[in-house]
Amino acid sequence: MLRLGAAWDDEPALAAAWRAARPFPHLVIDGALAEAAVAELLAVVDEEPVWPYEADLFAFEATAPAPTTAELRALVAAWSAALTPRLARITGAAIGRADLRAYAYRPGHYLLPHTDHQAGLDRVLAFAYYLPSPEPPRGGELELYRCEVAADELVVTAPAAMIAPAPNRLVVFAVGAASLHQVREVEDGLRLSLAGWFYP
Amino acid sequence: MTDLGALFAARAALVVPAAIGPAAAAEVRARLERRGYTRYALVDRGSYDVVAEPDEPALCAALAALAADRLRPTPTAAPPPLAVIDARAVRLGPGDFVLAHHDRVHDDHQLELVLDLSAAPIAGAEVHYRRGGQLYHRVAAAPGALSIVERDGGVTCHHTYVSRRQADAVVRLVLRLRA
Predict the structure, then answer these.
(1) Each residue of A112-136: pLDDT tens digit?
(2) ipTM of this model?
(3) What is the least distance, in Å, from the CA of B139 to any CA of chain A?
(4) Residue B126 DSSP SS3
(5) Contacts 24+ apart (CB under 8 A), A64-68
(6) A107 and B CB contact within 8 Å
(7) B90-127: b or e for each residue (b if 16 or more CB lie within 10 Å)?
(8) Beta carbons within 10 angstroms of residue B85's beta carbon
(9) A156 vs chain B: nearest CA distance in angstroms?
(10) In chain B, which residue's Cα lies nearest the Cα of A148?
(11) pTM
(12) CB A185 to CB B163 under 8 A?
């Protein structure tokens, strides 16, 4: 079982923060994992191979969509077991499982503005968890946008919040047609993270 | 013959280097500046400056003639008649991009010309054409170069992200032509 940090103890406060967050519901939890759990997690991720991925929307390195080692499969299960019930209570979302991949953003890497909302994928909540880096990154912030929608299209997009990739920080946000976000380009250093979604 | 597919046995995708000289490109850039760029910032699609009507008829006609000459099926054949459908100028600075799903839909056969008017090459600032998701024509940053691509409904295009570590902008004149 993944040991969580004390930051989770006050669930009513986290639920209030979730509801009050703008431009769309999100949470930033510092000290999300117990220190010992961070070290264990790093050891597992370190054994998983990463590959370059590049398209018009992104350039980064990541593990394969499905874990290749038994240790990472176990970590995904532990992550899901530890976080799903808590986040269901805090956000009110009907979630039952999670997946994740590990990501490495090096200088010049980015993920341009997009929503994670895709018909048929059933993504309810998205998350990013930032790992300690041997070379703390400059850039690589998660940027959230305020959007206006008309006739199923975004007609206004404006930067609204910026979240730095601080070690042992977990960011969770609602997935929807207007939850536009990006990972700003890493200009220096190495940004290490786990990211994925919670599903029903 | 009225269809590019009939005109050209193979789908065209080529780059003509030095289609415009540095001095002439600088003059075009200056005219575009005077005409005025508009910022496009619906960032789920793109982030760039645009001149929707560049008003460069002589340059457009010269580029169309150059494309027609390069696309002759045989060296002795007459160049196919090509008409300019529209033109626009785009300027991408550090942090800018144009995503594929912001690309114009091309239901019929057309030619797309992209003239690099930049003052200097911007590393990594490229135009990519894909068919069936596969990259088949990569237009690297090369001031003065002209890309000529035959397009239909199966081709998508995007302008790659320009790194924030770059200091300058890339300027491109984009033309659509029809036979």
Answers:
(1) 999 998 888 899 999 999 999 999 9
(2) 0.91
(3) 14
(4) coil
(5) A64/A101, A65/A101
(6) yes
(7) bbbbbbbbbbbebbeebeebbbbbbbbbbeeebebbbb
(8) 12
(9) 6
(10) B42
(11) 0.92
(12) yes
